Amino acid sequence: MSALMDIWHAIQGLLTSADYITLGLIVVIAIVAGVLIQGLNSVISATFWSLVAFAALGFARAITLGHQDAIAFAKADWHAFLGMGMLTLVAYSVVFIVLIAVVNVIRSAVR
Known about the structure:
Layout: H1 2-17, H2 20-36, H3 43-64, H4 70-82, H5 86-110
């Protein structure tokens, strides 16, 4: 049970510490992925590609809005990814899985 609480606290920390642009990116990516998938059987692959899109858009945001050097930021971002804890990756994955599934269920119910 403590593992679930650890994941829950990681999700809460992720959602409460993120800025509005990051949360907006998460919501927009989840909506697009939830609309594009055919059913809930492909939610895992949609989550993987959503995480890739989130990383790419986060990189593009840092380059354009943050005026970062692309090469230096890519190296720093890669090292940050390698040092990221598994709990953080699980938290992001759970957020995307839940949002994509909710969007897909709503889309299926409307059709």
